[in-house]
Amino acid sequence: MPIRVYNSLTQKKETLKPLKKGKVGMYVCGITAYDVCHLGHARAAVNFDVIYRYLRQNGLDVTYVRNYTDIDDKIIKRSQETKMPWQELTQRYIAEYQEDMLLLNVLTPTLEPKATDHIPQMVEGIQKLIEKKKAYEANGSIYYSVRAFKDYGKLSHKNIEELEAGSRVEIDETKKDPLDFALWKAAKPGEPTWDSPWGPGRPGWHIECSAMSTHYLGMPFDIHGGGRDLIFPHHENEIAQAEGTGSKKFCGYFLHNGHVNINAEKMSKSLKNFKTIKEVAAEHTPEVVRFFLLSVHYGSPLDYTEKNMQDAKAACDRIYLLEQRLETIPPAKKAGPPQPKGELEKALAKSLKDLDKKFKTAMDDDFNTAAALGAIFETVRLYNKYLDARGGETTPFAQWARERWEAQRECYHQALGILGLKSSDYFAQWKKAGAQTKKIEVAWVEKKIKEREEARRQKDFKKGDVIRGELSGCGVELKDRPDGTTEWHFR
RNA sequence: GGCGCGGUACCCAAAUGGGAAGGGAGCAGUCUGCAAAACUGCGAUGAGCCGGUUCGAUUCCGGCCCGCGCCUCCA
């Protein structure tokens, strides 16, 4: 089954055809390392992580490059404000980002190049553009001559005349045309600089990505990704830079993820309406954060609200609660044949069988994680239904079904990066998070539960219920098991 | 103003030219000492509005309204 992707370049869903059989080159714009990252950055990282994972699961040899921008205006500004050398600043936030990625179970890309390690490649690229009359020098800076590139606007589907008409670009006298953008910025006092044929200076923002992507992946390469907000001007300019030097195509498929909104507005640093990855993960657990990010198609906007996070938790709980039930079924010594008997077993066996197909169909269709999760829940319901009816006894079918489910779950885990925890670990994450946000000691809860158990043993149900009420008021939910023990979790 | 994306039940959210998955919330029930969880049942005769194409449209086309994003740094 072919994988189809929505290509921003053509604005259509297309079959993904790798340039080299069995291999995919993918470049995704990473972060500018000058501050901590928020949920919006997490979304981009997680979405492309899923794409990376899924392509690999389909046997493709993916070279995944995700860069770090470690020199730009914001970095310089922040460095001056904080009196921290820019190298130290960027190193610090790259490290923070890597912690965030680890937290969210994002795989490390094949390569994570930094802009400042590729100045020669950028200089070389700029030189070529000058040779091709696509760029010019002005006061030690080099600008791209946008009008010299006839395909300018083909990604963002803008045309130059209209851009100019509605231009909000501030007039810069050194540029020949307001639309032109800097490839190389002449040194200013106190700023980090590199030598170049045009004197000391530093690269513009866009050149690093076309330089690094083509350096590592060649030209053309298969997939270029990033947030929607990068379509213009960043990716548009990358195309101009890469394709301006010749007739070769830059990249076949541009994939863009939607933004994370908060109160129906884009989450962003400048609006100060962001939640950092660490904040959200501490409050809602990394697993649920990731689940939340995958509960919607990657191209659509996603609203961060307390309600939506709770819904995501409830949904995610549902899967881990099933897991908890299944853990009581002893694993089979040998993987016997299913031999389903009765309607429920047959229905479950069929559902398990169909699920792989449904999952694949959903994922093949532009990585539709929302639909894939939907399919999983259909099976979860049938599984619970079967378990309710089964009684406690261990049958070969129950063991077969468990093994089958675990194997499938592992496959979905590989692709999505969620649903891979032991249920006890998942709920332990919640106890930790709940204890923090609700300011309740886990030990205190457990002491209360012991008191209640004692009361119940003495048939003092009234006292037991009082304790439960007390705990419930603190957001602690109890679940009495048949064996007399009590499981608990934060609501 | 230009370009792009979207408007599906109380909320979130998929698919689809033949009449709408899934999750949450709600109500009723089964189970449980009581709960919780789970399960069962109920819930859009209609998909922003209006036209058109079609035997048939939520799905295609056109218009309108509304929201969001980009056009300046941005995942």
What does this structure look like?
Helix content is 49%, strand content 15%. By secondary structure, it is α/β, with parallel strands linked by helices. It folds into three domains: 16-257, HUPs (Rossmann fold, 3-Layer(aba) Sandwich), CATH 3.40.50; 305-422, Up-down Bundle (Four Helix Bundle (Hemerythrin (Met), subunit A)); 438-490, no CATH class. The longest helix is centred in the last third of the chain and has 23 residues, at 342-364. The radius of gyration is 27 Å and the shape is elongated. The model has no long low-confidence stretch (mean pLDDT 93).
Instruction: Tell me how many strands there are.
Output: 15
User: Which regions contain 5 or more consecutive residues with pLDDT less than 50?
Assistant: none
Q: End-to-end distance, in Å?
A: 41 Å
Name of the CATH homologous superfamily of the largest domain: HUPs
CATH architecture of the largest domain: 3-Layer(aba) Sandwich
Total number of helical segments? Answer: 16
Major beta sheet summary: 4 strands, parallel
Number of domains: 3
- Global mean pLDDT: 93
Helical fraction: 40-55%
Strand content: 15-25%
User: C-alpha Rg, in Å?
Assistant: 27 Å
How do the strands line up in the largest sheet? 4-3-9-10
Shape estimate? elongated
Q: Kindly name the structural category.
A: alpha/beta
Instruction: Output the CATH topology of the largest domain.
Output: Rossmann fold
What would CATH call the class of the largest domain? Alpha Beta
